[in-house]
Amino acid sequence: MADSKAALEESAKNVEEEVRRVVEQAKELQDSVASSISKASSDELSLRHRALSLDSSIRRLQSLLRSLLSYHLLDPKLVNKLQEELERARCIMVDGDAATYLRGKNQGGFLRMFLGPINVRASRKDVQLKVKEEYNSYRDRTALLFLLFPSILLILRSWIWDGCLPAFPVQLYQAWLLFLYTGLALRENILRENGSDIHPWWIYHHYCAMIMALVSLTWEVKGQPNCAQKQRGVQLFLQWAMMQGVAMLLQNRYQRQRLYTRIALGKAKRMDVVWGETAGVDGQLWLLCPILFILQGFEAYVGLLLLQTAYLGVVSEWQVFFCGILFVIMAIVNFANTVQTLLAKSRFKAKMKRIKVKSLHVK
């Protein structure tokens, strides 16, 4: 006991000095950190200037090559080679840490509406890639749910609910669709902020789907009498959603294989979500395209059926008419984008074939 008291008395003599020393150390640490941040900011400003200058030079040279090609002042083969070299140089920049210093896309109103005026651009490439990995994982999970959720509803409709869906499970599914499409749209906007080349229609399509899910939540699901006729549109929509789940699973796998091909060729950034003109796996393409065209045709059919239902007065709510129009519009634009993708792929293959034939003639 006496020893403890003596130790406390000794500490009381030194405590003031120790507190003073800790305060001085805190001040020194703050000064060191502030100096380091200032130096890092100065270095960052210099690197940003170099990155922007180099990016501007690449754009200028690309524009110059297009002009020289249009006036036939350079050999087309040489122009193609130089354009590929410039594209590789740009991929090196945007796929590396230098991408942090490049100008990002202007943050859209959708992100500002949900997140406010905050910066969602990651400062490190590994963080950006984690954002994309999470997006791919989210798409995989939701594709499975897109397939399972309507399948369960249709099975229960036949086995338990005597061919007439209750309102609550359908509205629960529509609420989940609203959550799904909002999550996809948020993730895709964030990916675009971080340099991903996502096709704009993909995002607009999810905006339309969000609006439709929100409107359908206010749509009263009619029951008996004449339940089968009143719920015909709902039944077809659930069948379409099952097909959409299968198509999503195929698309996810197909697009990733195409992405690896483009990155290996130096024609894509690691942050890209691939679409359009690239080479891919022909076996999957022959399977995927018919499914997509059938899906789009079925989507248009569901939309026309909803419009017919509203026109004939079977279910006369405005929500039915609105959702029918949205279905038809999305089906038409989806079809146009799929055809555009196939044409671009066909042109790319024809170009590669011509280059191969020319190289054989040269040999």
From TrEMBL:
Record carries keyword Nucleotide-binding: no
Listed InterPro entries: TMEM120A/B (IPR012926)
Alphabetical UniProt keywords: Coiled coil, Membrane, Transmembrane, Transmembrane helix
Highest taxon of source: Eukaryota
Coiled-coil blocks: 5-32
Membrane topology: Multi-pass membrane protein
Main location: membrane
Keyword Transmembrane set for record: yes
Location of this chain's protein in the cell: Membrane
Entry's transmembrane regions: 142-160, 202-221, 285-307, 319-344
Pfam short name (any one): TMEM120A-B
A single Gene Ontology CC term: membrane
UniProt record similarity statement: Belongs to the TMEM120 family.
Identification of the protein by name: TMPIT-like protein
Organism: Carya illinoinensis (Pecan)
